[in-house]
Amino acid sequence: FISLTASDGTSLSLEALRVRVVVEDPLAFTEVAMAFRNRDDRTIEAKFQILLPQLASLSRFAMKLEQGKWQEGEVVEKQKARRVYESYLRQSVDPALLE
């Protein structure tokens, strides 16, 4: 299950999906790269959802910006993350909040 939904409820189309798996017993490292397209002429806020297997955990979250640079995610306390996310929204910066 993968979805990206705009704040107005419309879905953004998944344009590309690439999955790479490396097995190092007893673990498997899976990299999932997705590209979504915003067909609007405006900046939108969207909610990304992905269903992980029961014992899976996230070790990296990054977003590729228009300039081709990567914006790395950082794990912080939940309330602090929400405050930072909201402040970036007001600055028109591309934030991401992982819950």
UniProtKB/TrEMBL annotation:
It comes from the Eukaryota. InterPro entries: VIT (IPR013694). Residues 1-99 form the VIT domain. This is VIT domain-containing protein. It comes from Zooxanthella nutricula.
